[in-house]
Amino acid sequence: MNGFDRFKELQKKQKAYQLVLGIASWDSNTEAPKACFPYRSEMLSLISGEYYALSTSEEYQEIVNALHQDPEDLSEIQKKEIRKAKKDIDKILPIPREDYVEYSRLVNLSQREWEEAKAKDDYDHFKPYLEKIIGFRKKMAHQRDPDAHPYNVFLDDFEEGMDMEKYDGFFRIVKEEIAPFAKEVLAVKDEKPPEFMVATYPRDKQKQFVEYLMDVLAFDKNRGLLKESVHPFTWNTHSKDVRFTVRYLENYLFSSVFAAIHELGHALYEQQVDEMFDMTNLKSGASMGMHESQSRFYENVVGRSLPFWEAHLPKLKKLFPRQLKGVDAEEFFRAANRVDETFIRVEADELTYPLHILIRYEIERMIFEGQIDVDDLPAIWNKKMKQYLNLDVEKPSQGILQDVHWSTGMFGYFPTYALGSAYAAQIYYTIKEELDFERLVREDDIAEINRFLKEKVHCYGKSKTPEEILVALTGEPFNPQYYARYLKEKYRDIYLK
Amino acid sequence: MNGFDRFKELQKKQKAYQLVLGIASWDSNTEAPKACFPYRSEMLSLISGEYYALSTSEEYQEIVNALHQDPEDLSEIQKKEIRKAKKDIDKILPIPREDYVEYSRLVNLSQREWEEAKAKDDYDHFKPYLEKIIGFRKKMAHQRDPDAHPYNVFLDDFEEGMDMEKYDGFFRIVKEEIAPFAKEVLAVKDEKPPEFMVATYPRDKQKQFVEYLMDVLAFDKNRGLLKESVHPFTWNTHSKDVRFTVRYLENYLFSSVFAAIHELGHALYEQQVDEMFDMTNLKSGASMGMHESQSRFYENVVGRSLPFWEAHLPKLKKLFPRQLKGVDAEEFFRAANRVDETFIRVEADELTYPLHILIRYEIERMIFEGQIDVDDLPAIWNKKMKQYLNLDVEKPSQGILQDVHWSTGMFGYFPTYALGSAYAAQIYYTIKEELDFERLVREDDIAEINRFLKEKVHCYGKSKTPEEILVALTGEPFNPQYYARYLKEKYRDIYLK
To answer: At what angle do helices B58-69 and B76-92 cross, to 10 degrees?
Structure first.
C-alpha cells in the first residue's frame, strides 16, 4: 500500500469516529432525555479519547509529514488534503496532553459556571473562570507559535488567512462608515413594531410554513431533515445528511421564519458540496466566514427582500389569515427590516449587527494585547455599548455575560459573523450582474440562485480558501466597501428616502 | 491494577462502543434521511470492527478466562459479570473471522432479497439465500458445540436455559390445549368488528392519548422519550435512557394504542433495572422471553382488561367524542379482545397468537433436524396454517415470507414470543394473590404494580436467570399450564358464557 492510500485509510477511520460522535451530539442537542447525560458524557469521553489517539498517532504523523515533504506524485486535491491534515496535526501536537485534558475540563466546567452567572446576573461568579481560560488560551497560542501574536493564532483558526491587520481594516469600515450611517437610520426608526409583528402565531402552522420554505429554497429532503431545538443550528456529517433545527416562538413569528432561512442557507451550502469530498477532510464549507456568508445571504439578501415577500406572503396569509389581515408585501418587508438599538446580539437587526461584533472584536483584541484586566471588562463593554449603540447596560446578562463563546474558550470566533455578512454583500453585487436576481426571487426560482452558488462557492468544500473563492467569483479579494455600500443602499431606500 | 479492575476498564470501553453504535442505530431507525445510508453503513462497519476487536482481544480473553477459573475474590455479582463475559466470548471465538465476515455480508444481502421476494410474492427469489443461511447456521452451531443439537445452540442464545425438550413440553400445551380451545372460541367469534374499531382517528389526537398512557403507566419522561417509526420498538442504552416508538394508523386506533402499551411494558422493565448494572454486562432485561413477558403483561393483562377501560375510556372519549359516541367500557373491552383467524402473526389476537408461533417452532425444529428441503417449506407452512388456523394461504407474503427473522439468520427467536406470554400468565396468578390487581388498574394506580414488578423482576437486570426470577416470584419453575388456564378463563368469560 502506498503512503497516500494508507493516509486515506487512517483518515477514513477518523471520519468514522467523527460520524458516531456527530450523531451522538445531534441526539444530545435535539432529543436525548435529561437523565442520560452523566452516563453518556463518561462514555463519549472514551470514544473522543480514541479519536484523539488516532488523529495524533505516530504512524499518522509520519505519513502526513512524509507526504507533505514529498508531494510530487499527488494530485492537486490530494495535496490539499495533506496540507489540511498537516495543519490539523500542527494545531494539536504542540499542546502537551496534560494541558489538553485540563483545558477540556476547564471549559466544560466554565460553561456551566457561565450559565449560572448569567442566570444570577453575577459577573464576579464567572470572572475567575474567564481569567483562567484567557490565561490558558495565551499559553496555548505561545505553545503553538511563540513568534505570532496570540490573537492572530486564533483568528486564523476560525478563518484561515485572516489576522488582526486584515480585521482592523474591515472593522475600520464598520466603525467609520456603518456606525454613523446606522445612527442616521436609528434617528428615524419606527418607534413601535406593527401589530402583526407581535401577534400570536400557533406553532403547528409556523412549522408548516417552515416546511414550505424548505421547498422554496430547494432543500433536498432526501438528504436532510428539519427538527426542533432550543437554539437553532445546522448539523451535517457529509453532503447527504444535512439537518437543521428551528425554535418556534408563538409570539414572535419573525424569529422562527428568519432563523429557518438562515439555517437553510447553511444547509444548502452543505448539501451542495461536491460528494467527491464526502470521505475527505475537505468536505464541509470553506470557513466559518464563508459559511456565515451563505446563511446571511439567504436570510438577509434573499429572505428580507421585497420580491421574496411578494412571492410568499400569500402563502403565509393563507396560514394566518386573521393575524395578517390587510398586511401587504411592502409592510411585511419593512417589518422584516425593522431597525432598533438592542442589547442582545442575537436579536439585533441586520444594520446594527456589525456594531455588536465590533465591540467584541475590540475587546478580544485588547485581551490578547494584554492591556486589560478581567475586573474591568464589564465597564469596558458598557462604555462601548454606549458609544456605538447609545444604550446603558444595566445588568451583565444584557452585556458582558450574554454570549456563551468566551466560556468555551472561543476567542476569535465572533469576527467571522460580521465577516460573513460582508462576504455576502460582495457576492451579492456579482450575482446582481450575473443573474436576474430580483426576478428569480419574485418568481420563486431560487433553485437557479442555488445552482449559481453551487458552481461558484459550495461545490468546492474546503478545497479552495475563502480568498480563492472570492477572487474567482467577484474578481477581487475581500473588499469590505461592498458591505457598507449594500447596507447604505438597502436602508437608505427603506428609511431615508 | 488487579484483574477485575482491568476487566471493568475493558468492559467500559466496549460499552462506549455499544453506546455510539446504539445511538446511530436509533437515528437510522427513526429519522436519518434516506440518502445517508451508503456513507453511514461504510463508516459504521469500521466502528463495529473496532468493537469486535475489543471484545475478542487477547488481553480481554486472558483476563476473563483467568477470573473465570479463579473467581474466589469476586463478589456474587462480579462472578455473574465474568460468567456472562465468558459466555459471550465463547459464542464468538469458535467462529473463524472469515466465516463471521462472510456471514454478516450474507445476512445483510439476504434481508434486502427477502424484502424484494416478499414485495414480488416470489418465494423462489428468496429460496437460495434461505438455503445458504440455514447451511451457515448449521455450520456455526457445529463450530460452537459439535456435540449439541444445532437448534439447541440457538434456542439457548435467545433464552438461556431453554432447549428443545423444554420447548416441546411447552408447545405440547399450546397444541393440545390452547389450539382446540381457540377453535371453540373462533366458532362463536364476532363476525364483524364494531364500527368504532374501524373509524378514523386523527393522528395528533392518537399521539395525545399515547402521551397520556405514558403517564398512566408511570413511564419516567426524564429518562426516555416517545417517537414515531414504521415498526414500533423499544431502545435503550442504560436505565436512564429508554425510548420507544409507535406508528399511528388513522384507520386503526387499536393498533397504536396496544402497540404503545406493549412497548411501554418493555420500556418500564428497562427503566426499572437497578442503576448499579448500568456500567456492566448485566444491565437490560434478563432474557428475550422475560422481556416479552413484561410487554405482553402490560399489553394484554393490564391493557386489554375491563378495569383498564373503565378507568381510561373517558379520556379517550374526550379526545374522540364522535367516533366513540355511545360506546361503553364493556364494548370497548370486547373489541380489544376480538378473536379472528389471521394470516399475519403481528396482526393476530392474544388467543391465536401462540398458534402462529407453534407453526414456526415446528418448522424450525424440522429444519435443524435436517428433515426438510427448502423447496418444501411453503407447502409445509401452508399445511400447518390449515391445520391450526383453518386458513388457505394464497401467496407467500401472507405465509412463509411474512417475517423478517429468517432472512437475518434469527432461528430460535420466535419461540420466545410465546414463552413471554406464558411467563406473563404465570406471573399474573401470583400478582393476583399478592396485590389487589383489578382495583389498582381500575383506580389508575399502575405505579403500584410497577413497584411490585420492579422488586420481583425488573431490578435484577441479567443478574438472575428467567428461571431464578420465576421460582422466587411464583414459587415454581416455568409451568405452561398457567398460560392455558389464563387464556381459557379470560376468553371463556368473554365468548363462551
So the answer is: 130
Query: To which H or E segment does residue B120 belong?
Result: helix B97-120
Question: Taking chain B, what is the end-to-end CA distance rounded to the nearest angstrom?
Answer: 69
Q: What is the band of B354 on the pLDDT scale with cuts at 50, 70, 90?
A: very high
Tell me: do B234 and B298 sit in the same domain: yes
> Exposed, middle or buried by CB within 10 Å (0-12, 13-18, 19+), for A121?
middle
pLDDT of residue A108: 82
d(CA B421, CA B116) in angstroms, rounded, equals 32
The span from the CA of A49 to the CA of A66, in Å, is 25
CB pairs under 8 A between A and B: 114
Measure the CA–CA gap between A418 and A167, rounded to whole angstroms: 10
Of A24, A225, A237, the CB nearest to B20: A24
Joined together, the cell numbers standing for residue A41 give 458524557
Of the candidates B368, B363, B330, the residue with the CA atom closest to the CA atom of residue B345: B363
In which band, very low, low, confident or very high, does the pLDDT at A4 lie, cut at 50, 70 and 90?
Answer: very high
Contact criterion met (CB below 8 Å) for B428 and B301:
yes
The ipTM value here is 0.92
Beta bridge partners of B227: B245
Question: Active-site positions of A?
Answer: 263
Q: Which residue carries 437510522 as its cell?
A: B28
Same domain for A174 and A247, yes or no, is yes
Mean pLDDT score, A336-354: 96
β-pair partners for B244? B226, B234
- Nearest by Cα to A138 from A362, A372, A359, A380: A372
Query: CATH code at B434?
Result: 1.10.1370.30
* A176 and A142 part of one domain: no
Domain hosting residue B19, numbered range: 3-146
Q: What is the DSSP letter of B221?
A: G
The answer on B245 and B96 residing in a single domain is: no
Contacts of A20 in chain B (CB under 8 A): 20-21, 23-24, 43-44, 47
Nearest to B271 by CA among B227, B226, B217, B219: B219
Do residues B233 and B210 lie in contact, with contact meaning Cβ atoms separated by under 8 Å?
no
Residue A371 CA, distance from chain mean position: 28
DSSP string, A186-240: HTT--SS--GGGSS---HHHHHHHHHHHHHHTT--GGGEEEEE-SS--EEEEETT
- Cβ atoms of B311 and B443 within 8 Å: the answer is yes
For chain B, the helix, strand and coil percentages under 3-state DSSP, each to the nearest 5: 70, 5, 25
Do B314 and B459 lie in a common domain?
yes
* Residue of B12, B14, B23, B283 best to disrupt the A interface, most CBs of A under 10 A: B23
Determine the average pLDDT of the residues in B186-202. Answer: 96
Domain identity same for B139 and B169: no
Residue of chain B nearest A242, judged by CA positions = B33
Kindly list the strands in the beta sheet with B234-238, ordered across the sheet, starting from the edge strand earlier in the chain.
Answer: B224-228, B241-246, B234-238
